[in-house]
Amino acid sequence: MSNIAIIEDESSTSPPTRSTLADSDINGILYNSNDDIKPIVSFGLIADIQYADNEDRYNFTKTQLRRYRNSIKLVDEACKYWLNKKYPISFILQLGDIIDGISFTNKASVNDLNTVLQVFKTNFQSLPIYHIWGNHELYNFSRRELLNGSLCSFDTKINSPGHYGIIEVCPNLRIIALDTYEFSALGVEKDSEVYIQAMELLCKHNQNEDSNDPTGLRGHQRRFVQFNGGISPKQFNWLKEQLTDAKNQNIKVIITGHIPIHPSACDALDLLWNYKEVLDLLWTFEGTVLAYIAGHDHDGGYFRDRKNIHHLTLHAIVECEPNTNSFATVHVYKNSILIVGVGRIGTYQIDCQL
Ligand SMILES: [Zn+2]
């Protein structure tokens, strides 16, 4: 594997602008006006469930309580919401961190994973669920185990050990699902080339004893922590090919991955290591790429960038306060895509011609 290029050019990111549709009152009116129009297709979004059969505890920075057992109730609530909607969803996109790293400590990885999957299965016997891998999947399982298990959602014959692929949403809309940990120190043997290269990159930028500790790092440099990762050169080239193919056929694309790629849609601590290269690539496909949807930053975020790409980072299920939730439904129409959030997630409209 060749070395990954990390370019520091932070001046090219746009200043934050607020979506004109971030206001819930405006969204409420818009959503109601669309409710009677049958979407071409609808699908569900959910992120950072991080279930564990474990007592609640605070996160690493002691700022947010992780309500592990509550998260399973919220998944069930999300499923019931989708089941009761006028227009059924065609699939669910689970954006990673389905169980928490504590499950591994408790030697309960398989049990805890099965508990979450069973909730989906009880509600939807045969609905496709596409799983994106986050850092917590890789705390619990090796990449090899994941590729052979129930969280493998794509045909990885060509891309293995990477886990990325395509979801055809409807004739003119495609999801490209990325593996934002293909280049990382997680889920791989410590003597593997990828581990050695990932640790070399981390050590170059982060001299702390614990490479998950961002102390002393400033600005976007804070992303150089071990719980993040990057896109490999092989995956980068694949993404470029996919985007070229979509553009040539006039197919619109939504990109998804566990780690966000725009500094204005997340805390810099949760950014993809080589976010800038990926962003620059997406910007060369203006008009083709509509959105990038991620999880990982539990506080969520939204930003519409200079090339009209909507960056949506979903709030985490595991850190929901009592009596709230965080999931979304994407409705695809001929002239727009409406992302309708529930609980902590807002509602966003993407104008497009499909
Ligand atoms: Zn994560």
TrEMBL record:
Residues 43-299 form the Calcineurin-like phosphoesterase domain. One of its GO terms (molecular function) is ADP-ribose diphosphatase activity. InterPro entries: Calcineurin-like_PHP (IPR004843), Metallo-depent_PP-like (IPR029052). PANTHER family: MANGANESE-DEPENDENT ADP-RIBOSE_CDP-ALCOHOL DIPHOSPHATASE (PTHR16509:SF1), PTHR16509. This is Calcineurin-like phosphoesterase domain-containing protein. It comes from Adineta steineri.
